[in-house]
Amino acid sequence: ALQACLFDLDGVIVDTAQYHYIAWRELAQRYGFDLTLEQNELLKGIGRMESLDIILKLGEVDLPMEERVVQATIKNERYLELCQQIVPSDALPGVHDFLKELQDNDIKIGLGSASKNAPLILERLQMTPVFEALIDGNRVTKGKPDPQVFLLGAQELGVDPAATIVFEDALAGVQAGNAAGMKTVGIGQVDVLSEADMVLPGFEALQLASLTEALGFERI
Ligand code: G6P
Ligand code: MG
């Protein structure tokens, strides 16, 4: 039966993707090119420095390491400035109800995010106590699609990866969950997330019983 659920943060619990996009786009514009929403899709779930490298490649800009670190820092400061507007009611629709249902059924809850800012965002949402395991960008050496972030989460929760569901809005994250041997639920569009075991538009009206049945878990 299902033992745990691991959640990505950005784009699953809260829509911070819009703030990442604003801050990355401003960086691109400083170098004279634009970053489209479609290109931004490639950056979801991808760590900060790796994202920067992808953006610079898109703009055909070559920067020494030192300057890349400076630019990543500026981007992060801008991102954090934008994140100051996050309030508890910004948790995406249905998230709180679904987490409550997990708690009521003794399903463990963990976070698996590439973001080094994850603890801070959870604080702003007043959701820190919900997560029994918190794996973020400060704790992993390999980014998604490597399964490390989710395997660490399962290990810390003391659960079997095969009895775990991963919720992800990014293709790289779905691939990481699959590589970890977990069931994956894509949150977003089917065309982007077709590698997931199941794709949902969001958590609204999601029932644990129908979810576990659809994913082939034994009744709780
Ligand atoms: C998440 C987001 C990415 C972001 C990454 C690192 O995975 O989807 O867009 O680049 O975290 O975030 P950070 O807050 O550490 O820069
Ligand atoms: Mg995400």
Automatic annotation (TrEMBL):
Binding site for Mg(2+): D8, D10, E168, D169
Site (Important for catalytic activity and assists the phosphoryl transfer reaction to Asp8 by balancing charge and orienting the reacting groups) location in chain: S113, K144
GO terms for MF: beta-phosphoglucomutase activity; magnesium ion binding; sugar-phosphatase activity
Residues reported to bind substrate: 8-10, 24, 43-48, 51, 75, 113-117, 144
One GO process term, biological-process aspect: carbohydrate metabolic process
UniProt cofactor(s): Mg(2+)
Record-linked InterPro entries: B-phosphoglucomutase_hydrolase, Beta-PGM, HAD-like_sf, HAD-like_SPP, HAD-SF_hydro_IA, HAD_2, HAD_sf, PGP-like_dom2
Manner of cofactor binding, per the entry note: Binds 2 magnesium ions per subunit.
Pfam families with a match to the protein in the record: HAD_2
PANTHER family listed in its UniProt record: FRUCTOSE-1-PHOSPHATE PHOSPHATASE, GLYCEROL-1-PHOSPHATE PHOSPHOHYDROLASE 1-RELATED
Protein name listed in UniProt: Beta-phosphoglucomutase
Species of provenance: Dyadobacter jejuensis
